[in-house]
Specification:
The chain has helices at residues 9-25, 68-88, 96-112, 159-169, 176-187, 222-238, 242-245, 250-253; strands spanning 30-35, 38-44, 53-57, 60-66, 121-127, 136-140, 146-149, 152-155, 202-208, 217-219. The longest helix is centred in the N-terminal third of the chain and has 21 residues, at 68-88. β5 and β6 form a beta hairpin. α4 runs antiparallel to α5 (176-187). Strands 8-1-2-9-10 form a five-stranded antiparallel β-sheet, covered by helices on one side. It has a five-stranded antiparallel β-sheet with strand order 3-4-5-6-7. 34% of the residues lie in helices and 18% in strands. It is α+β, with helices and mostly antiparallel strands.
Length: 307
């Protein structure tokens, strides 16, 4: 009778965690930034139909990174849970913390189950309050862990690089334009250098507490993004690119030539003509010749076999 193949539970959990992290790291980062009037979400997402940031309920938003079909299932489940709870009890009973706990239980159960692969997703659940101190942002990982973050949060892609950029520039009480510029700058930051993310490749949404409607979620359309980020794009377009700076101007392409230097092979100077027998310089065709002296052919050496 053959012995069954044994793998320790620690190794199984490590393999599942590595699998989930690898899938999440392939996605583009999502940034959440608190500002004076709410919470801003930004992500580099060229698609205009497949959203990473969505509305869950009146004051609650959902953002995710990873496999689209998996976090879309989580989003739909959250919308259904919030609608049923608000209908059965009261709309004020639907809270971000309650949804975060429900998501944590679902993700934790899937991760620890041996019958299916873990979800390759990380999600944000954010709720805007009556004041900035009441805003809440929850970050949930693939294994069901929940973290209550303040100020800003990053998930997916180059998390450490983007988080370092935000931590060195974030300050409390930012305006919407300042928070937007900070988030977009963080998305374009990398170890190899900064880049400007086009407005058409951005997905930006906010939870705005100043809206008079009960629903505080609002998307920033491309027209508004272009208006708010137009100065940034114009400044980036005016900056000289590296390939442009490497091309010298015509005036600086060649230094002053020395016509009398016969060893100059790069400046374009023409070396003087020489007598092949005596080595003496001969007059150039453009050099003036005295009118009373006709041109004289070079003397012939009688000992030269080629003469």
């Amino acid at each position: 009778m053959s012995m069954p193949f044994y793998v320790s539970p620690e190794q199984v959990m490590k393999d599942r965690a590595d699998y989930a992290r690898k899938g999440i790291s392939r996605g583009r980062s999502v940034v959440a930034v608190q500002y004076a009037d709410g919470v801003l979400f930004a992500s580099e997402n060229p698609s205009q139909a497949l959203h990473k940031v969505s509305e869950i309920y009146d004051r609650i938003a959902f953002a995710a990174v990873g496999r689209y079909n998996e976090f879309e299932n989580l989003r739909i489940a959250g919308v259904r849970l919030a609608d049923m709870r608000g209908y059965a009890y009261d709309r004020r009973d639907v809270t971000g913390r309650g949804l975060a706990n429900a998501y944590a239980q679902t993700l934790g159960t899937i991760f620890s189950s041996g019958g299916e692969k873990p979800y390759e997703v990380e999600i944000f659940v954010a709720e805007v309050g009556e004041a900035a101190a009441d805003d809440q942002i929850y970050r949930l990982t693939y294994d069901g862990q929940v973290a209550d973050v303040q100020g800003f949060a990053v998930m997916g892609g180059a998390v450490d690089t983007v988080a370092e950029y935000l931590s060195s520039r974030f300050a409390g009480g930012l305006s919407l334009d300042e928070a937007l510029a900070l988030a977009v700058g963080a998305l374009g930051h990398s170890e190899s250098g900064d880049r400007v993310v086009p407005d058409t490749d951005l997905e930006v949404a906010v939870l705005d507490r100043t809206r008079v409607q009960p629903r505080k979620f609002r998307r920033l359309r491309p027209e508004e993004l272009h208006r708010r980020l137009g100065d940034r794009v114009a400044e980036a377009a005016d900056e000289p690119r590296d390939e442009d700076a490497a091309v010298p101007s015509p005036a600086a392409a060649s230094p002053t030539d020395e016509p009398g230097d016969p060893t100059d092979q790069t400046s374009g100077a023409v070396p003087p003509l020489e007598n092949p027998h005596t080595g003496e310089p001969l007059p150039r065709p453009t050099d003036p010749v005295a009118p009373d002296e006709p041109p004289v052919a070079p003397p012939i050496d009688p000992n030269d076999p080629l003469g």
